[in-house]
Automatic annotation (TrEMBL):
Entries under InterPro entries matching the protein: NAD(P)-bd_dom_sf, SDR_fam
Name recorded for this polypeptide: 2-deoxy-D-gluconate 3-dehydrogenase
Superkingdom of source: Bacteria
Length: 43
């Protein structure tokens, strides 16, 4: 997947449920697109 269309440098994203599954995949994709992340989990 090309992330050239989704440049998120300088943006902040909050991702919940980031330890596994969809949340982890979303967090990885956002980080690769240049976003700063706030990762939220209960465990």
């Amino acid at each position: 997947m090309s992330y050239d269309l989704f440049n998120l440098e300088g943006k902040v994203a909050a991702v919940t449920g980031c330890t596994r599954g969809i949340g982890r995949s979303v967090a990885t994709a956002l980080a690769e697109a240049g976003a700063n992340l706030a990762l939220l989990q209960r465990n």
